[in-house]
Amino acid sequence: MNHQNEIMIKEDTTDENGLNTMSDHENTKKGLGEKWPEPTVRVQSLAESNLATVPDRYIKPPSERPDQTIIINHQPQTAAINIPVVDLNSLFSGNEDERERMSEACREFGFFQVINHGVRPELMEAAREAWRSFFNLPVEAKEVYSNSPSTYEGYGSRLGVEKGAILDWNDYYFLHYLPLVLKDLNKWPSIPSNIREVLDEYGEELVKLGERLTGVLSSNLGLKEEQLKEAFGGEDVGACMRVNYYPKCPRPELALGLSPHSDPGGLTILLPDDKVVGLQVRYGDTWITVNSHPHAFIVNLGDQIQILSNSIYKSSEHRVIVNSQKERVSLAFFYNPKSDIPIQPLQELVTSTNPPLYPPMSFDEYRLFIRTQGPRGKSYVESHISPLDN
């Protein structure tokens, strides 16, 4: 089904989850104006200029740099630790082992992979290749869609508005899916010719997948199947996508494609590059390089799930390493709460021995942190953990 006829033109003042909650004046006051603090530099252009090293703006402090050994291809299948793989079709057919595997992954990793998830492999490949074609366009064609801090919607090259910040080695494209009234044709690329049709279908399928996954998460917490979705806003959930393009990097041991962070929203459904690894998940004191399963989505829990579950489920820090020999493209789809409703631990998960760990806060407030400060681990969600009474 194609909803392109429902896409409407909006003013460029919407928030990242799709609600028009901030005026231009409010955005500017919070540091989210129409201009970035410094001239925008496209990382892809830097990479294509045959640099011998990485500009200082992209060199991470020694303590934040990735391991010296940069993986070019997939990890060996015998890797001791990897993200659990859940067969969703088997789970919905009543396989309790699959259900328990997913439950344990949410409690231990905050990440899992899903196979047999109902999204056609041909559609997954078409979406990935459409975006790869977009990023291979001449820079002038892409600059038409250049974004601003006030919405992040469009073609961008940085997170956060801190002047002089150390930047990540990536370009990206951000756009909205839900609510439908905020799908903006002016912000959707028109080249390659099939990209809008492909992304429209892809978005519909991933919203359905997000609904199915939150249903399982709810049931595994002992809640009604629809309870997490209701906490997200019911039929008013938000959905958006960030496509990440990681160009070749001349000194990958000095830089990161995306700095450590946890996602501020609900669920992230990631379509990774099928040829080049890059995603790393923190597991204790170790960074696990995720070896993706063919035709799988990588799912991670955002801060809002951690809050709603009262920390029974965990959002996990993750980052992206870059590569000296290959570019990489990944598609992160965000299934999020309605941006302005208060999110707090669900009453059914609060007891006298397990009091609420978080005060009520909207997704807007959590997202604003990463949009102003950039990715900074789990510092924001952890700073709101309530001190327990003695």
UniProtKB/TrEMBL annotation:
Which residue windows does the record flag with biased composition (Basic and acidic residues)? 23-35
Q: Which Gene3D superfamilies match?
A: B-lactam Antibiotic, Isopenicillin N Synthase, Chain
Report the cofactors. Answer: L-ascorbate; Fe(2+)
Q: What is catalyzed by this enzyme?
A: jasmonate + 2-oxoglutarate + O2 = (1R,2R)-12-hydroxyjasmonate + succinate + CO2
Say which domain of life the source belongs to: Eukaryota
Q: Biological process (GO) annotations?
A: defense response; negative regulation of defense response to insect; regulation of defense response to fungus; regulation of jasmonic acid mediated signaling pathway
Q: Which UniProt keywords apply?
A: Dioxygenase, Iron, Jasmonic acid signaling pathway, Metal-binding, Oxidoreductase, Plant defense
UniProt-listed PROSITE patterns: FE2OG_OXY
Q: Name one GO molecular function term.
A: metal ion binding
Check the record and name the Pfam families matching this protein: 2OG-FeII_Oxy, DIOX_N
Domain Fe2OG dioxygenase: start-end pairs? 236-337
| InterPro entries (alphabetical) | DIOX_N, IPNS-like_FE2OG_OXY, IPNS-like_sf, Oxoglu/Fe-dep_dioxygenase_dom, Plant_2OG-oxidoreductases
Which residues does the annotated region (Disordered) include? 1-35
The family line of this record is: Belongs to the iron/ascorbate-dependent oxidoreductase family.
Q: Under which name does UniProt file this protein?
A: Fe2OG dioxygenase domain-containing protein
